[in-house]
Amino acid sequence: MKIGRYQMRFQTTTTLMVLAVVALALSALYTMISLEISRHTREGLEQRAVGIARTVSHTPTVQAALTMGGDRTAVQPYAEAVREANGIEFVVIMDMQGIRLSHPNPDRIGEHFAGGDEEPALSGKEAISEADGSLGRSVRAFSPVYGENGQQVGAVAVGLSLESVHAAVGQNMWLLYIGILLGGVLGLIGAVLLGRKLKRVMFGMEPEEIARLLEERSAMLQSAKEGIMAVDKEQRVTLINAEARRLLGDEVRLEEAAIAAAEAWANAEPEEDFRSLLRMDRVLASGDPVYDLEVERGGTTLLVNVVPVRISGRVEGALATFRDKTEITALMERLSGISLYADALRAQTHEFVNKLHIIMGLTHMKRYDRLEEYLHEAVPSLQIEAGAVVTQVKDPVIAGFLLGKLSLMREAGIRLLVREDGILPEASEPAISRELVTIVGNLLQNAVEAPRPEGQVKVIEIGFDYADGWLEIEVEDNGIGIASAVVESLYDQGSSTKGTNRGVGLYLVRRSAERLDGTVIFRSEPGEGTRFRVELPYPTKNGVKRTDD
Fold first, then answer.
1. Per-residue pLDDT tens for 69-128?
2. What is the pLDDT of residues 179-192, one digit of tens each?
3. DSSP string, 295-319
4. Mapping DSSP to helix (H, G, I), strand (E, B) and coil, where does residue 7 land?
5. What does the domain layout of the chain look like in residue ranges?
6. Which residues lie below 8 Å from residue 39, measured CB to CB, with a gap of 6+?
7. Which listed residue, of 16, 107, 266, 349, carries a Cα 20 to 30 Å from 224's Cα?
8. pTM, to two decimals
9. Is residue 113 a contact partner of residue 92, using CB atoms and an 8 Å limit?
10. Are the CB atoms for 102 and 95 separated by under 8 Å?
């Protein structure tokens, strides 16, 4: 809140506004209650005066004094006694002509009653009025006096001064004053506590700072390259940015995206529900995040990460971030050749350094005969391995990949054999080479991780066979085979016997094969290893038709 040049803090503004509301409420309450107290107090005093006047009018002494020939001198002492006993201003007894028979000031006895409001009482009616008399302004109660024969013989006037009425009202107002004061103190305390609580809830930030922060957050979300979507614990969409709408094909305007997406997906069939496809329902149920999930949506492959949103230790929603894998793959494609060759060079460099150490050691010991034998053994084996890869694999990306794998597996004590009875021509499109790297790389990695019998050297064979536009890829290992319990779910994402966050490799192999309109089959026998075969149509760059071309 801004007053002139002074900018008040939110806590101060909240406190003052609450105090203003409390003050208005207490003022209205004070007005209503004070009027009610004044009315009740005045009515109580008036009824008391009426009661006194009625009692005096029925007194035999008064009735006898007003009767023709009665003793009027007895009225004054009686009236004064009643006045003093009840603490009222006056008790005046008058005849039918309005002549006073009693008065606090004896000199006024015999004079006509002052004020002019005695007429209703002289006409036989009880009345209450406020008028100016010989003693000043007062509240008066009148009651007629009747004789023994039932005929009116006079009237009684009982008066209360306005000062006494006001004093009585003031005495009854003290309780109201105390209540208003207590309410004001409690309102002040409540306003201060509320201001502090709101400040704490808003993390000590001012509304302008929160608004600016929300604008910045919205701008960041909408400009983010990744699609972002959030749901609450009821799976209602609470946030979706522009990139997510693009990837999901949502055409609604930005401000309506969350509502429209929530309504559309809330009515979707279970198999079409994008939240289930993203595993958001599982994340909400288990509270465990899901990373690097690949899903298909409208012909687009998305790489998805889903994490639970926890508030005070409870899962209150889930947040999914996803990106078109094609864009990521395009970047990988630019670097794949370089990275594969770099891996091959790194492994060969490490191996070459080890061989230099051996040569240096043999030279230092002057074991030239052993050095000559070592060189005759080492150089041909390296030339044979590299020569087999270059001869059989014409695609430079796959060749570089296999050279790197040969060196890495040799360091790990694993024998990788490339069969010489087939050929892999260069693919017509880089995208096909990229899918082949996924297939071959994951099959080799799966073979490397396959358990093998105790004390046996792991041997992996890979072969390529191209004929009549079709390519067969075989990867075989000498492990212990695949357990029958996992055969049915072997290609399911997340299905693995090797621990958590695994079970992706064979899923990617089948998915890449299906993208190329191919198939994946395998044969596994307990104790005899496993053989995977991938068959797919393979357009070549130079139109190669047969393996012997």
1. 777 888 889 988 998 888 888 899 988 888 888 888 888 888 888 888 888 888 888 888
2. 888 888 888 888 88
3. EEETTEEEEEEEEEEEETTEEEEEE
4. strand
5. 55-165, 212-324, 367-537
6. none
7. 266
8. 0.42
9. yes
10. no
